[in-house]
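Thread: quick sanity check before group meeting

JM: Hey all, I'm pulling together slides for Thursday and realized we never actually wrote out the predicted structure for the chain we discussed last week. Dropping the sequence here so it's in one place. If anyone has concerns about the input, flag it before I start.
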Amino acid sequence: MKFEKYHALGNDYLVYDPPSGDHEFSSEEIIRICHRNFGLGSDGILVGPLQTDKAEFGLRILNPDGSEAEKSGNGLRIFARYLFDQKKVGSSPFTVDTLGGIVTCEVSDDASSISVEMGQVSFHSDVIPVSVEGESREVLNEEINLNGKTYKYYAGTIGNPHCVVPLTDISEALAKQLGPELENHPLFPNRTNVQLLQILDRNRIRIEIWERGAGYTLASGSSSSAAGAVARKMGACDQEITVEMPGGEIGLVIDDDYNVKMTGPATRVATMNMDMECHIG
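JM (edit): ok, ran it. Output follows.
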């Protein structure tokens, strides 16, 4: 079974281009393929391009825990780079259909930069979803208790759910501590991605990321988009925002309606063939 491996600022995916139509991986297969010791090792599998009536290309995004993601900014940049490398697209914009909605991608002439129109961020509890008490509403600067300590958080969705916790100081250790608790908190019926957010100035933020279904992550496009939108909603940042992550930087442009355009790199790593000896079954 042949895969193409790419990374986007250290967030790595395996692209599987099915020979004919979609391919159904079992949860056990996904977990084995993505495993760092017993498989090929990745933060997920991108299955595509697939046939769709809604866009030029269809894409499925599989998490390393066997679940399926609605949307991934880094995954979309990697998928766009794969399509470019396979000469299925050029440098003109094209559309991709994901579970989290249709997005528009564009690859630069030299493939060094990929832009994705990620869509509009919503903060509304019914859309994300968040199981709030009382009337449904935008979930902004609300309190959540974790192990006896109270934090303020913002919730949002850009096709997949996010919980953003603004703090004056953030770290990998804190993301690994709070991430699993927030991901699986009863407030989030579909679980959630988690970002610890530090505002640096009007045009720059820093985040640490715990990704739903993947764990601690060096970089994330959808997490960057959600955290950037929260920074704008807080009134702390302007339209153009650079997002610092352990794996590198992503550029965002977020308009007044919280539509997000994300720009960053995607790097080709290798062609990988998984031997049947390693296969589940």
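AS: nice. The chain has a mean pLDDT of 95. The radius of gyration is 18 Å.
JM: adding both to the slides.
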